[in-house]
Structure formats: C-alpha cells, structure tokens
TrEMBL record, chains A, B:
Annotated cofactor note: Binds 2 Zn(2+) ions per subunit.
Name of protein: Amidase, hydantoinase/carbamoylase family
Cofactor(s) required for function per UniProt: Zn(2+)
Top enzyme class: hydrolase
GO molecular function, one term: metal ion binding
EC number: 3.5.-.-
Organism this protein belongs to: Phascolarctobacterium succinatutens YIT 12067
C-alpha cells in the first residue's frame, strides 16, 4: 500500500472549504448550486483515479473503482459535502476526501472486490429540516414526499430542489439499494465532541449512533398592539414559547447522566414586529441519545410541559413530529478489525458512541457498517472554529484504507 | 358646515386597504413602493379639494387649503398611511381620511387660517425599528443617522430607503419645522385598546401619550453541534434569551397596576438551524407607560435580570438602547374644546390616555396638540382583525371638522 499523502488531503479539504456562501465559516447548503460546484471541483481533482461516476435518482453520487471479481458486492465508503449555516471545513468532507485518499493509497494493490465511494446528499438538516436525506432515500428509509414538509420560509421545497438539481423525484425508487448490495460500509468522520481530545486518543471506533428525534412546537396566541394591550389582556405566544424553550432544556438536563441532549435551534415569531404582541411562534426541537428509555422520558417531559403551558397561558400548543429515529448499533466484527489495525499501527484508540447522527446509521440497514472518529479541537463542530489536524485525519485515513483493503480481498 | 359623507369615508378606507403586500390583513411598510402607490391613489381621489401638495426633504407630505389670512400659522391635522406586517385598515388611515373628509365638510366655510393635512412617513417601526420617524424628523427630534441602525437583516437601511423614495437624506434639516409654525395640531385615530368599547363611549379625548422605550438585548453564547455537545458543556444563547423574554414579561406584570407594558416582538437566532446550539440571540423589546417612575422600575428590573442571566449562564448580555421617549401631555384647552363640541353634538366621550405612541406626541414640541380616539372592535389593532365602524369614525370626523373650523377662525 502507498503512503498517505498529507499534502493532497490538506489541499482537497482547503479547496472544498472555498465553496462557501458566508465569509465566516463554511455555508454550503444541500442541493444548492454551491454544493454542485464543490462536488464538480472535487471530481476534477481526482480524475487521475479514473473512477466510474454514477448519480442516482435523488442526487447521491457513486465513484467506483472496479475489482477483479465484479460479481461480488463491492466495499463502500464515503460521507457528505453539504454543511450547516456557518459550519466548518471537516464535518463530512473529512470522510469523502479520506475515502478518495484511501483509493490513492490502494492504487498499487490488486483487489478482489470493487470499492465505491458514496457522496451522500443532504446529510445536514439546515436547509430542509431533515437530516441524512440522501442515505434515507438510498436505503428506502423515507420517500421524498415525507421529507418535503420541513422547508423554511422563503426557500423552495425539497421536491422542487430535487428537480432544480436535475433529478426526477418521481423516480426516487430507482435510487433504493437492496440489502446485501454492498459487502460493508465504512465512514470516516470528525468526532464533533471533546471525548477523544480530553482522553488523548488518536482515533475513535464507534459502536452506537444516537439518532435524533425532531419536532416542531406550534404555539398560537393572539397578535395585538404592544402599547395599547394591557398585560392582563394578552395571550403572548412568545412568552409561552420561552417557557417551552426552558422546558426542553430542563428535560434534557434531567437526563444528562444518560447522555441525552435537547436543543431548540430555530424560533419563528409571527408577525415578528417590535410593536406587536407575538400571535404565533414555532420552535424547532432536536432531542438525541443512545438510551431509548432516556429519550422517551425527555419527550414525555416536554409533552407534559406543553400541555401545562397550553392550559395555564390559554394558548394553543401543538407538537408536529418530523423524525423519530432509533439509536443504531454498528457492526462488532468491523470494530474489532479496526481495533486490530490500530494496534498494529501503534495508534491509540477509544471505543465510543456517536452523539451526532450520520449517514452510516442508515447504511446499517443494507450491510455491516463501521465508523472511525478523528479528534476535533475542543469538540467544536457546526461552527466556523471547527478544526481537525491533517495528522489526525491522515491516521484515520490509514486505518480506513487498511479496512477497505482487507474487506475487498 | 356640510354633512359628513359616510360613503366617501368608507370608500377611501377600503381603497387604501387594497394596497397591501399580504393577503391576510394589510401589509404596507413605510417608504415601500406600495406606500407611495397608496398615497398617489389617495391624492387622485381628492383632486376636487384643489389642495396644494408639498413633500418635505424626508418624505412627509403636506396638503394645504389656503385661508384668507395666509400670514397666520395654519391649523394642522393628519396621521400616517404605513402599516405593520399583517396590520389593519384603520390605524393611521382613519386620521388621514378623516382630515380630508373634514376639508370636504368645510368646503362651504370661509376660514381665516389655512389648514394643512400632514401625511407623516413611517409612523410604524415595523420596517426600520423606530416609530414616528417622519414626525421625529419634522420636529427636529432625530436626525436620519440616528434612525439608521434598526434596519432588519436582508432589508436596505433607512438612509438608503430615503434615497430610493426620492429624498436627499443630507438635506434633512430642510424638513424641520420651527415651534409656532402651526397654530395647533389635531389627530384622529382609532383607540387600539378596549376601553371605549367596554365603557360604551363614542369618542375618546386624549390627555397623555405613553411613549415607547425600545431596546435590543444581545445574548452571546457558543454555537455548537446539537447532538455531540453534552448538556453540561453548553452555552446556549437561546436558553438565556428565553429567561429574558420571561423577565421582560414579569417586570411589566409587576407594574400592571400603573399601566406599564413590556413586549418582546422580535427574536433573531444565530445561526438558526435545528442541529446547532444557538450561538447568539437578539431580542427586540418595547416598554411603555404613562408613569415615568413605573417605566423606570420596569427597565431597572430587566437590566438586573440581564446581569443575573449573564453571570449564571456564562453568556454575554448587552443592552442596546434604540429610543427612550418620555410620556407626553397633550393640550388641555383643546381637550376642553373637544369636550364642549361632543356635548353640543350629544356624543358620549371619555377623557383617557393613549397606550400607543403617535405622531401627535412629537407635534407637541411645535404647537398645542390634541388627539381624538374612535372605538375599535375588541381593542384589536396591528392585526388583520382590526375594525372600526364607519359610524364611529364619522362621529370622530364631525368633531375634528368642528375643531379645525373653530381653530381656523
């Protein structure tokens, strides 16, 4: 196997980071023209790998290196290129660039099975309110119609975005891959937490993924003049919403020991004028954990508080579920193989869980799946300050390349 | 004096309501192309009044009917045409249409003084974060530069809007009117509260106007991944903001008996993604009252809670003052004159205060000023359901016309 090329890895990551809609951090929303430009640029850079390129019916891209035994299911790896608003340059990109660099490292190897690098579309929910959309559609875990109701005010819907991207949303079934189509799937990713850094490990081997439960809370009060409406005569939707923002936080704080978290990330206020008592508010909520019972308790507590606020404040409160995924267990044999590889290479490693959701979580439905985590500075992610060192990333790529080599033989 | 024409009043109010950017209610933001179109339409409708039309350096419009003694300061009346987002068809328009109808009623009268109808620009703060901008500039109470920092994300600044409207912001001093330039100013307006309806009075005679104190609260936390950031490691700006939304509400509730109110009408969340812990939040706050000491206690309480939250949550909290107007007393002699007119006409009336701010509040600086309130249904205003009956409005116009007649003689 050839040596990992630090310079090429750094150059590709830097190049991708330049495709951004914001000066601060990287903003490259899923299915945006910039998402397409970044992908085209990347594919140009790796033309010398001579990969076969295929795009499926929902925009996922497959880069294939043929093996000798083309009838056997290929080995798959990959990640995503889209980012949150004001995100970083490593979340997702690290796994796509890492997969391509692994193929460079394997250029001198004759392998039995083919290898496919998958660029999943829309892993982040920043644009359409749903996460891991490409891998959900690929594994038959959702249909476009279901993912169409999270669009933000002023943006086009997901189905319109699919058409704009050049896809035919009606042909979404063509994108679904049957179980057994791949021998296995491996995803390299930054940790997006502080555990590896604080415990001084060079690599994380992931065993469980905490999947998000997402919902909107709609609060309906009465819009009124902010000067002429006495305090006792108001039904201010934002005051009720504030109580529910605190209720989400408290419900998750109570389950802190079990690793659950809860976040309100978006607040829509209607009409949103300084001189009008808010008449309606929508909160977008994200709850996660690896312990199903703990997640259920968080959700139950939020539901109870929503009912309390509705009764006490005389406002309408309605919860609209968006997604409710279960925590996912990854493949134990592949984890053991990564452990063996780390030991051989002298890399320190930690067995751990993922607090963030990943495309790998859906790939478990069609093949044995594994994930490798690279430490990131201060655990900061989804933020312009997101950073992972090229050294740490390249250690991850070395292990990934060896996993692909062993699985493809 | 001629009879008030109910049909013309209803037709002008309905016509103005058709100039809207929203299907629900009326949305006609200050200095927008729609604001201009509505004004042009109205001026066409009243061409038969043969008024002299003048626009000042900041966009306020003056419609003048000459009196016999042109060297004497004219009598002024008027209101505004701009609305909040999803507002009603009466707030402001009632006073402009009412002033024009009063001129129709006075067509058979020979009057000593001239009468000017003023259409003030940007009474509502919905677009630029500041209220009564036209009357502030007209009375020298502000300069454009001061009013330029409240622009919303994605919109142009106030100074840019002035240029777009055809004004020269640098010539703003030309718009300032010296004290004594008018004999008096009278504004007809809907109450925007429930007092007249609940006490069954046909007209309100206003004695004090509760002016708004407006400020932004900036909360600075740390944006982070919503899945991989444990609860104990967060500095969630929105959780701190929720505490301050409740603090504003509580501070005003405590001063309810003294008539003070407090409202958070706008919440800006950065970055505003469901999968990112909010890193920064800005709240737009409006506090009002007629009792200066009570307002001061509300502001002090909010300031103390802001400091508490900053210390307890480890976030940055900064208060940025926008405006801090004082409650304003209107002219007692003019109020007594309106009382006499109501008594003569057999209209029931109530002496009262205004919870909402009005252009009249700034006109007190240059001449004796009075306001007349028309009841509005359920006190609802700044809302599509805002409604005042033509009968009630026309009673107000009858009194206004008589006030103008007496003052102009």
């Amino acid at each position: 196997m050839l040596q990992v090329n630090h310079e090429r890895v750094a150059k590709l990551l830097q190049g991708l980071a330049s495709f951004t809609d914001s000066e601060e951090g990287v903003t490259r929303l899923a299915y945006s023209p910039l998402d397409k430009k970044a992908q085209s640029w990347l594919l140009e850079q790796v033309q010398d790998l001579h990969l076969q390129i295929r795009t499926d019916a929902v925009g996922n891209v497959f880069l294939r290196r043929d093996g000798k035994q083309q009838l056997l299911p290929p080995v798959a790896t990959g990640s995503h290129l889209d980012t949150v608003i004001h995100g970083g340059a490593y979340d997702g990109m690290c796994g796509v660039v890492g997969a391509l660099e692994a193929l460079y490292m394997l250029q001198d190897e004759e392998l039995g099975r083919s290898i496919e690098v998958i660029i999943f579309r829309a892993e982040e929910s920043s644009r359409f309110g749903f996460a891991t959309m490409g891998s959900k559609l690929l594994t038959g875990s959702a249909v476009p119609e279901q993912l169409n109701k999270g669009a933000k005010k002023g943006d086009i819907s997901f189905i319109e975005a699919l058409r704009e991207w050049g896809c035919n949303p009606d042909a979404y079934r063509d994108a679904v891959i049957a179980p057994g189509s791949y021998k296995c799937f491996a995803e390299l990713h930054i940790e997006q937490g502080k555990v590896l850094e604080q415990t001084q490990h060079q690599l994380g081997i992931v065993h469980n993924i905490a999947a998000p439960t997402r919902f909107k809370i709609h609060i309906k009060g009465v819009a009124d003049h902010s000067g002429a409406t006495p305090m006792g005569m108001r039904r201010d939707a934002l005051v009720s919403a504030a109580k529910l923002i605190l209720a989400v936080n408290e419900a998750a704080e109570t389950e802190k020991a079990n690793g659950s978290v809860g976040t309100v990330g978006v607040v829509d206020v209607e009409p949103g004028s300084i001189n009008v008592v808010p008449g309606a508010v929508t909160l977008w909520v994200d709850v996660r954990g690896v312990d199903k019972a703990s997640i259920a308790r968080v959700l139950q507590s939020i539901r109870e508080q929503a009912e309390n606020v509705a009764v006490c404040d005389g406002v309408g409160v309605q919860i609209e579920m968006l997604t409710a995924d279960s925590p996912v267990a990854l493949d134990k044999a592949l984890a053991a193989q990564s452990e063996a590889i780390c030991t051989e290479k002298g890399f320190s490693f930690l067995h751990m869980n993922s607090g963030a959701g990943h495309d790998a979580m859906h790939m478990t439905k069609i093949c044995p799946t594994t994930m490798l985590f690279v430490p990131c500075r201060a655990g900061i992610s989804h933020n312009p300050a997101e950073y992972a060192s090229t050294e740490n990333i390249c250690r991850g790529i070395e292990v990934l390349a060896e996993v692909l080599r062993r699985e493809a033989n």
